[in-house]
Every structure is written in C-alpha cells, then in structure tokens.
Amino acid sequence: MLAVGLLSACGARVDDSSASAGGEGTSCVDTSGPSVKIGFLNSRSGTMAISENTVYNSLKLAADQINAAGGVLGKQLTVVAEDGASEPTIFAEKAEKLIRSDCVAAVFGGWTSSSRKAMLPVFESNNALLFYPVQYEGLESSRNIFYTGATTNQQIVPALDYLKEKGVKSLFLVGSDYVFPQTANKIIKAYAEANGIEIKGEEYAPLGHTDFATIVAKVRDADADAVFNTLNGDSNVAFFKEYKNLGLTPEAMPVISVSIAEEEVGGIGVDNIAGQLVAWNYYQTIDTPTNKKFVEDFKAAYGESKVTSDPMEAAYTSLFLWKGMVEKAQSFAVNDVLAAADGVSFEAPEGTVTVNGENHHIAKTALIGKIGQDGLIYTEWSSGKPIEPDPYLKTYPWATGLSG
Amino acid sequence: MEVLLTQLFNGLSGGSILLLAALGLALTFGQMGVINMAHGEFIMAGAYTAFVVQKALGDAGVSLLVSLPVAFVVGGLLGVVLEATLLRRMYHRPLDTLLVTFGVSLVLQQLARDIFGTAGVDVPAPAWLSGPLEVFGFSFPRTRVFILVLAIVAVIVLAALLKLTPLGRRIRATVQNRQLAESSGISTRRTDLITFFVGSGLAGVAGVALTLMGSISSNLGTSYVIDAFLVVVIGGIGQIKGAVIAAFVLGVVQSWVEYSTTASIGKVIVFALIVAFLQLRPQGIYVVRSRSLA
Lengths: 404, 294
Description:
heterodimer; A: alpha/beta; Rossmann fold; 2 domains; seven-stranded mixed sheet; 13 helices; B: mainly alpha; 11 helices; 2 strands; globular; ABC_UrtB_bac (chain B); transmembrane transporter activity (chain B); transmembrane (chain B); ABC_transp_permease (chain B)
C-alpha cells in the first residue's frame, strides 16, 4: 500500500534497485518535472548552530548560483532544509526523512563526527548520497558519503611536515577529550617517532573546559619548540587568553591549531591569537579570481562583516562537485552518480579539487596559515599541489598499525 | 618549589573565580533558600555588559572598571525582576522554583543569542592587565591577580554589609526568623528584594571578571552555575565564610589533582572527593539553620 502511495506521489522515478549494492529499497527521487529536490541537513539550533549556520549559508549560496546558471541537467534545484539540532540521533532521523519522504537526490551537511557516524547507516541502507564538508579524523570511507573536507593526510600530516621543515624538534599536544583530538594525536605521535620529534607532553581537557591555568603551566614548563592544538570550541578562547597572559608568544613557542578558522578568531580575540599558526585547505585571503568572486558573492548575500572559512568553502564546493558528477553521469540516480564520481574536478575557491572515486575523499592543497592582526589568515606555506586523499594513511610507512 | 608555588597560585586563582561565581548564590540560595538556576545567566549578563560598555567607551583601560558597577546594577535588576514577578509566588516550593528558574535561564540564553548572535564575542583585556606580573622571578598572569583581588574585595564588602550595616542586620534577622523579624517591624518583602538585588548583582560582577578568562557566549553561565552551587553546598548553606573556604579549597585541590593527573581525570577525582565529603558532612563545612532547606 505504501509503495503504491509513494509511486503516485512521485511520478517518474529513478530506478536503481537492480544495481544497488547495499540498498534495500527503490529510490523515490522525482526527476520528471522541471526541478529536482536536494536536502540540506545542518544544526540550525543547539551548540553547533554557531558553526553549522555558516555552512548552511554557503550551501544556499551555491544552490542559488547553480539555479541562476540554469540548474543541473536543465533542472532547477529545490532545497529541502532540515535542522539536525546538534543531536546525532536527530541527524539520523532527519536524514531518513529527507531520503524517504522528501525523496531528495542528495543530502549536504553534518559537522561533528558523531553526526556523520549516526547518519552513515541511514545513507548506506537507503543507498542515498551524503556530502560531508568538514575536516575530520579519517579512518572512514563509505560508499554513500563524499568527504569534501580534509582527511588527516591533507591537514595534520602537512602541518607536521611544515613544523619539521621549520626545525621543530619537540612538540606539546593539547586537545579536547574526544575522538578527533585523540585520533589526531595518535597520528602525530606516530609521525613524531618516525621523524625524531620529541613529544614533551599530551594534555586533554573536557569539552567546554574553561580553566587552562594548569594546562598552560604544564605547556610552559615543558618548553617544547611548538604546541599542536586540537582543542574545540570555547576552550580555545580560555586557552589562548591564558597562553598570552602567561607571557607565551608565537615567536617563542608557536601554537598550530586545526580547529580555528576565520569565524573563531573574532571570539578568541585577535590580540590573543595574532601570529599563531593554523592548518587548513582554504583561507579567505587566497588570491585567486575564483576565491575573490566567492568572497564577494558571500558578503553580498550575507553582509560585509561576514568571513568565509574552510568548512564553508568545502560545503560550497561539495554542491558543485555533485553537479559535476550528475552532469558526467547524465543522471541523478545514485549508482550512476557513484560510477561517474571518479575524477570529477572543480575549480574551487581553494584551488582545483578532484574526487577520488575509490575512497570518496577529494584531492586538495594543504595550506599553513598565520593569523594576522586584522583577524584574517594568510598563507605561510603551501603543499604546492593537491594532495591525494589517504584516509587510512596507507601510503605512509610510519602509520602502519594506526588504522588497524 | 616553583611548581608548588605556581600551582598554589593557580589553585587560589581558580578558587577566586569559583568564589566570585558563587558569592551571589551564597546570598540567594544560601541565605534565602532560593534555587536560582538562572544565576549563571546573570553572570552571562554581566559579561555581555562588559562587552557593551567597552563598545560604548572604546577604551579598554577604563571600561573594565566602569563595567563592574554597571554589571552589578544590570545583574541586580534582572534578579529583582525575577524575584518580583515569579519567585515571590513560590518561596515555599523549592522544586517549582528550580524548574521555573531553569526555564528563565533558557529564555535568557536565547535572548542573548538573538541580541548578540551565536558567535562568541571578545572583550580585550586592558593594557595594564595584559601579560604576566613578575614577582621574585615567578610570573603570574595579571588578569588572575586582578580577579583574586576582586574576589577578596567582594567578600570583604559583602561581609561588612551583612555584619555592620542596618540592612545587613535586617537580612540576617529575616533569614534567621522571618516571623519575629516581621513582628519587630522589618519589611521582609523589601529585605527579600534587596537581598536578591545584591546576590544577583554579584553575579553580574563575576561576569565582568570572567571576560578576562574565557569566551563570552550565551552558554557562559551554564559552565559555572553547577560549580557555584557546589561551592555553596560544600561551604554549608547559609554561611558566607563557608563558601569562601569551600571555593579556595576546591580551587587548590582541583589545580593539584589536575597537575598530577589530567584535566578530565582531575574533574572525576574532585567530584569523587566532594561526594565522599558530603557523605561525612551532609550539611557542608558550616552548619546553620536556614529557612527552607535545613
């Protein structure tokens, strides 16, 4: 009965059940009309709203631009937006809703690893598509997810290469107490061991920790050449204020961070963090015509004071990559899109990115940035060319045993 | 020796932050027996007051000092409004008070998000508080020294107010025996209001101090309100000096445990110690009869 109801509601459908590997049902995506539905799933409320709203904005910008330029395969995109409410279980529920009752062709969104992990089985069992725009801890590769943020070998490993190149012989690791920093630090320790870098200390603070007196005192006493910071959220503010107030400077002991982008600098206070380093794949200051246009369009749409950051750019890029895959496949069907994905490339604001069809990550250029007095981030060092994604670090001999 | 001194200072500093957050609560919860979950949001209001004052005055050096009295009044007024509209209707229903004030705290958080946005804001520390203070070769962050001094001043002023002024006598009389105070001609209504004003005002002052330490966002209050309640409960409900001792002991223990373990384990151990302590002394450090919770 349900199947009949869905059929009459959706009209023509894309039938890919014959080829679906893990999928159980038939997709109900409607491509008969002049438009096709896509889903945005971001936390518009709760603690993550602060970050995910910006991702939603850039996804919306990409959809508007694609529509203005004629849509995808001649069809306008209709956005169905859902609120993940910063709760992994709600992400899973809403993903199910977008796929099964809204019948969207693809879903874009998610931020925390826990939200992605919660959505993964939903996308796999429905054989649907998710585009996930945030750098993460790697060690994952789902047939139904495209990861457009950096994996570890495009962010953390280049950051270590940079530090090594600068003559750093010892490191202190500071991170929030959850999966990303713990995994990142495992990788850092393996790299350090193979490259003769001494780890002088490793400290984790509970999420939301606000008193960094003791941790910063330990950092100061350990006197490492640099600090590798994987703290998340508000803790960064307390950490950098304490760091500065204890008289530690970026010149004497630089801190390299992997979770602080343009958006966060204002809240930490430029004075407290100017001169420190970050590792990403995109900065607002990238000097290319493509990026200038992106920044201009973003400011025109959302206000002159808005900044653009790596996850926003990765989200914007993800929609264009999906468009590229669909156009290459000449079909909205998930299996056709998956088959066409390999090698799809886009001239993104960060530079050229290319989809790796095997692990569903994208090749992107790593950039080390320095935070300027104006709160923007300026490229200090670049990997020069896009780095092939390697989520399980298989091509790095020192990393054997990490992914097991 | 250096570690010893540094960690002792960090502990006292952590204690002074706890104390500032808890001092107002020691009045409203400790003295009046009101479980005010919105106390944390009064702290947040104080922090945003510092932000607004700085935006208005521009000069970080003066604006911090101006913010202190302004935030006291802002916090106090919020407290008075809460007391006059909601709390006075439920003085003998602690559970209802808990739920209602929790609701108020959510409303205030959303209000802050609507007014100031979801992203955190920063109040730059004035030049005279930036960097470390060198004493005998040891360096202490000036901001922490400032907060320590501020907390001590706040305790002295509050103690003087309670012990030496007619207002303080009225507050103590009302707390100790409401009927007798009323029959002696004290307006207990007015006294309640003023007590709540002072207690909530102190939360505002704490908020200004916290801008020197960390992030200012709508959830600032939630990270401190539980610790503040802990301090009051450990100190013994109804006693300011209990809260003072509890805050500093908690700060020093926390900083030592954290130094010898990690921040996460440190928190677990400190909470375990608190549970054990309250098993031995359920009434806290000081035992005093109070109106509704003794």
